[in-house]
Specification:
globular, single chain, Rossmann fold, alpha/beta, 41% helix, two-stranded antiparallel sheet, 9 helices
């Protein structure tokens, strides 16, 4: 396995909950870890709100297959969590068979974003899966989710670039992903004024030229808000979005909104 080079991430942290498209997120995280020579840590987060709901005597759920209401209790939740954790472990083992990879899996309870912030440092890259889905899916993974996961692996890698050091790291990570997928590299230039685009694009071109690569497409993000980034990802049917961030903790609520709106993994790069 190649040795890490200065500037590489220490870890790729992939955060998953019971509503994540886990196959896509694990694939993206594994490709990043292999490309950047970093360790992969997977966090499977059991929603504490869901646990409190399961403890209520009147809780009910609607069966995925039967469409019938049934008792939803802590024992059933525990069983489903064990099954999903086992599925995630198998997915990580499969990813490690395909590429050099050092990985670990930890099951924790809490809020996805809050747990993530507790387990990451400034040197980590963070991969988030989509969470706007039913919080409890039982032991069966819906066919539509598997279909989305397969499609996402062939869709563009979208990197947001704003000229910061984190944005340059986002480009490096995007190339690591793009080399291991069938998708293209789309660079979204984040600039409030159109006059700034040329200079930022020149930075991207220079950074990519060093690795003898080029972007497939450039976009202009005049509005740097999370909603606009989410809409851009939807229009381009992104397979993964790489977003440079100044401070993970300060932008906690924005990240929640982003992963809720995008049906693909989001990589946060401090």
């Amino acid at each position: 396995m190649p040795q890490p080079v200065p500037g590489d991430a220490k870890r790729i942290v992939v955060a998953l909950d019971t509503g994540s498209l886990s196959g896509v997120a694990i694939d993206a995280a594994a490709r990043l870890a292999a490309g950047l020579h970093a360790e992969l840590q997977a966090l499977f987060v059991e929603d504490s709100k869901l646990r409190r709901l399961a403890d209520l005597p009147f809780a009910r759920e609607l069966g995925n297959m039967s469409a019938q209401h049934r008792r939803f209790d802590a024992a059933e939740l525990d069983r489903a969590i064990r099954v999903q954790a086992r599925q995630l472990r198998h997915a990580l083992e499969a990813a490690a068979r395909e590429r050099p990879l050092i990985w670990s899996l930890e099951v924790v309870r809490g809020d996805l974003i809050a747990v993530l912030l507790e387990h990451t440092s400034a040197a980590d890259l963070v991969v988030l899966g989509r969470t706007r889905r039913p919080a409890y899916l039982g032991v069966r993974v819906p066919t539509v989710a598997r279909r989305i996961e397969r499609l996402a692996m062939r869709h563009p890698v979208v990197a947001v670039f704003d000229g910061t050091a984190a944005a340059t790291r986002a480009l490096d990570a995007a190339l690591a992903l793009e080399r291991r997928s069938k998708g293209e590299l789309v660079v979204a230039i984040r600039a409030p004024q159109q006059e700034q685009i040329a200079a930022l694009r020149a930075q991207v071109d220079a950074a990519l030229a060093v690795q003898r690569r080029a972007a497939s497409e450039y976009l202009w993000l005049q509005d740097a808000g999370i909603a606009n980034i989410a809409e851009t990802a939807k229009r381009r049917r992104a397979g993964v979005v790489l977003l440079p961030v100044a401070d993970l903790a300060r932008a906690e609520h924005e990240f929640e909104g982003l992963v809720d709106e995008i049906a693909c993994p989001v990589v946060l790069i401090p």
